[in-house]
Specification:
Blueprint (H helix, E strand, L loop, with lengths): L5 H6 L7 H27 L6 H12 L20 H7 L7 H26 L8 H11 L1 H9 L3 H16 L3 H14 L7 H6 L5 H16 L6 H13 L9 H8 L3 H26 L3 H18 L13 H5 L11 H11 L10 H36 L56 H8 L3
């Protein structure tokens, strides 16, 4: 008797028998078709914003011994901003013609994002057979951050993969390898550099060997091979540190665009910095032993602060917040409330709010929603943690070192196996068998009658 291959049997149409199967059968086709649309239609079509062209031209100049840092910073076109070590790493892009190279770079980012999706599932004890798998895949590729990373063709997909690899290695105490991954990421783009503070908070000092050593080593190798390596530090780096008033969703960027006074801009930045510092202290003081929650939440707070508070923050940087958003499956997550997801809509949604009818209002909504989203997310995290702390202090629970409310221990958590895939061994926990039913107390019949006779007698007039 012919038996179809396993893959074909998985694709065989079946009628769902459980709610979980209904959801999976509905989400998988939508998720897969969304991925295909983003990769083969939107990404290949491209857009007027092209982050890949300056990278390719710089790589070509590097391979041919020409100056690399020659961008005209007076224009608003994308500029080449990678450091010398990053130039060395991305130089192979120019070994083939621009069109094929761009397609290869898109494919590289797609593979990186899909690997990051899988690692994110595994980080929270899910498999590709769980409901979370298609839901997460669909959410990622419907977001602005993944869509525009592919359409603009930049390196953020690879940076996301580096973040997930770093978190996995950090939690497994593979400190040297975690440092190498972080160092390679920082060599190209310093987005993940703040994560080294989490390693320091956990006492994993070996991470610094690779985290600092790899960028230094690649820069030392690239320096004599570049004609104008010093121009990065004298010309490009000062531009990076400036606050520009276009394509900039940081507080300072929008403040410059709307002409806010410096005192008001600094007041907002310092206020948010204080909220971030308090949130990080509460996480370190009361949650550092809950390793998964601490690492993923702290990384999200740090990265959101880096997007919002310094001089430059762009919407598609929000890709690095996927681990924070995924903490919603944890019982003590700070994301289990509607204001948090209102914030997520602000910086993740691909919707445009520009309006032909209400032009001024629509433009303000479009330009400010990212800034408001990041700001609201940090405020929500501060309020959730602060409320837990104050409630624990009122109840006298602070000496125990736990500020989670008592009811939270009964809430669903992926680590209990209640939300995670039951086929995953590490997601299961021993279940306490229910107590055996006890027989109702026996009452002795009156006058030597049986219970049935007593019931009959008791209802007789």
């Amino acid at each position: 008797m012919y038996r179809a291959p396993v893959l074909l049997r998985q694709l065989e149409p079946r009628t769902a028998r459980t709610t979980a199967e209904v959801i999976k059968f509905a989400l998988w086709p939508i998720a897969v078709m969304t991925v295909l649309n983003r990769v083969f239609i939107k990404a290949v079509n491209g857009f007027v914003t092209d982050d890949f062209k300056p990278v390719y031209n710089a790589s070509l100049a590097f391979l041919n011994g020409r100056p690399v840092y020659t961008a005209n910073f007076d224009s608003v076109d994308p500029h080449y901003l990678y450091p010398p070590g990053g130039t060395l790493m991305i130089a192979p892009l120019a070994l083939i013609d621009p069109e094929k190279s761009r397609w290869c770079f898109i494919l590289l980012n797609v593979v990186a994002i899909l690997l990051a999706w899988y690692l994110l599932l595994r980080l929270f004890a899910y498999t590709v057979h769980s409901i979370a798998a298609p839901a997460l895949l669909l959410a990622m590729f419907m977001s602005e951050t993944v869509t525009n990373t592919l359409v603009f063709t930049n390196v953020n997909g690879c940076i996301l993969l580096a973040e997930l690899m770093f978190l996995h290695l950090l939690l497994r105490r593979r400190d040297l390898w975690a440092g190498v991954v972080l160092g390679l990421s920082v060599t190209v783009k310093p987005t993940l550099a703040p994560l080294i503070l989490i390693a320091a908070a956990r006492g994993q000092w070996k991470v610094f060997i690779g985290g600092v050593g790899v960028p230094v080593a690649t820069t030392a190798i690239a320096w004599p091979l570049m004609k104008d390596a010093d121009d990065f530090f004298t010309r490009t780096l000062p531009y990076i540190l400036e606050t520009r008033d276009y394509f900039n969703s940081a507080i300072s960027g929008n403040a410059a665009y709307y002409g806010l006074p410096d005192w008001l801009t600094w007041t907002m930045r310092l206020t948010m910095a204080a909220l971030v510092a308090i949130s990080l202290w509460l996480l370190y003081r009361y949650y550092r032993h809950d390793e998964l929650f601490f690492v993923t939440t702290s990384s999200g707070v740090l990265l959101t602060a880096i997007f919002l508070l310094p001089g430059l923050g762009q919407m598609y940087y929000s890709m690095m917040l996927f681990p924070l958003l995924m903490t919603v499956v944890l019982r003590n997550s700070v994301m289990r409330n509607w204001p948090a997801w209102l914030a997520v809509f602000g910086f993740m949604s691909y919707d445009k709010w520009l309006s032909d009818r209400w032009q001024s209002i629509g433009r303000n909504l479009e330009y400010l929603r990212i800034t408001f989203g990041w700001t609201l997310l940090l405020i929500v995290i501060f309020c959730v943690l602060g409320d837990r702390y104050l409630a624990a202090r009122r109840d006298g629970r602070l000496p125990s070192g736990i500020i989670d409310p008592p009811w939270m221990r009964y809430a669903p958590d992926s680590r209990d196996g209640t939300d995670a895939d039951p086929e995953l061994p590490e997601s299961r926990t021993p279940q306490t068998p229910p107590p055996a039913p006890t027989a109702p107390p026996r009452t002795e019949p009156r006058n030597g009658t049986t219970p049935l006779e007593e019931k009959r007698i008791s209802v007789e007039p």
